[in-house]
Every structure is written in structure tokens, then in C-alpha cells.
Model the fold of this input.
Amino acid sequence: MPPDPLGLVLSGLLPFGGYVTIQCQAFFDESSSHEGAAILCLAGLIFKKSEAIKLGHEWRKVLQWKDLPYFRMVECAHGNGPFANLSKPERIEVATRMIEIVKRRAVQAIAVTVDNADFLSVMAEHPRAARVYKTAYTFCTHMVIAGVGSWIYANPKVGQMAYFFEDGHASAPQSKSIMNDLFAVPEKAEQYRYAGYAFVPKRKSYAVQAADLLAWQWSKDKKNQLEGRPRRKDCESLLHLHHNTGHLDRDGVEKIIVQGRLMEKIRRAGPIMPLPEGMFRKLP
Done:
């Protein structure tokens, strides 16, 4: 099994150490189809560079243990793809081990869900914002990145941050546009400790697969909440990791766009909104 290509990229972007943000996305609806999904989830994990590399080594060992080419939470949960050869207890054990690796290596989890219909409704009333946020994916991308900025705000000693995104998604160019516009402003590049960004294939990067696990779990948890079902035990375990998660309905989206004057604050170095003490994990 080849090494995680993320390690090579990290060596180039962060030769003297630093931190890493891995972002991934997942869609959920009744048909489990990406197209026309009711809720979009975007999730990110923050790692110290050295811990991201250690995660890769441990992740690969679990995959080799069960002769799996990659880890994808939706396939593990339902016994599809390469997981079809594993029994349910074996799949539970694989997921449990992966969750423990994430909890051991990541320092912060960030996830946001938004109702697509609510998002489109608000954008229809605010064409200026709609020109920036063409899709809910673009909007959530900025929310997760803003969350990283707020984490850095709580940890001002962080020197550099590299940003990684899942490659191959149809909306990847939108994420690239957000990054380019944001970090073209010197004050924002400094605020976010910007060292560079890259798009990494999910099936070849263990850290991106870890972010996929978080995205699936938080999406599923939100769906369970809406349908009155209890939280999954594996999600409960994963959320022992210090996390900041939330769901944006119509009021939430509108508050950020209108009351938060987000368009103005994009251009300033500072958190999007006031942060309660202890909201983001502070490093020792």
C-alpha cells in the first residue's frame, strides 16, 4: 500500500513544521444521492503536521489489517464496496479503530450543516451575497475556513497553516476561488497563517479519509436529530474530540449574511463573530 501523498505535500508547504486543516464534504438525503440533497455538510479537522503524518501511518496499518484499499465511512456503515467482504462486527471494529486514531491525532474538529432549500431562499433575497456564494458548498467552505481562523485566533502562537481539500468534487473550483480571494488580502493571509493549499484525492489520502469520517458522522447525526432518532454511539465517541459543530437553517444563514455583515468582515483580519471563552480548544 503506497504512502499518503499528503506527507510529500506537507514537506513542501511546511518544511519547518506547522498545522494542517483537512476539509471534506458529504451529502445526505432520503435516497442517499448527492444530487438534490436536502442537507449539505462540510467538515474539517485540524492537525499538527507531525500528528497528521502519524495518523497516516496508523490509518494504513488498519487498512492493511483487513486488506482494504481505503476507508470511506458510508461504505463501512452499509457494507458496500470493499467492505462487503467484512462482517458487521468487523466493520464496527474498523470504524472504532479509525475513530480512536482521529481522536488521538487531531486537535480540533469543525463541521457545519446547512439546509439547501433555506440557503437558496436567502440567496434569492440577497443577490449580492449570491454572487459570492453560488452554492451552499461555497458558503459552507467559507464557514469552515472561518472556523479555522477563529481557532487560530484562540491560539495566536500557531505559526503556519496549510489547507487541504478533497479533490474531484464538482464544486472544487468554488473552494479554490474562495481561497484565492481570501488570501490575496495580506491581512487575511496573516490572520489564517496561510502557508498554501492543495486538493488531495480522498482514496489516496488517509487524512482526507479521516475528514470524510467526521463529515459522514455529523451529517448522519443531524439527519437523526431531524427524524427524532438518538445519536449513534460511534458519533458520540468521535465527538469526544474537541469540536465545534452547528446547523444553519434559514434564520442562521440570514443572520450571518445580513446581521453579521459578513461581506465587510471578509476584508478584515478578525473572527467573523464574537467567540465565547473556551469555544475553541487552546493549545498548551
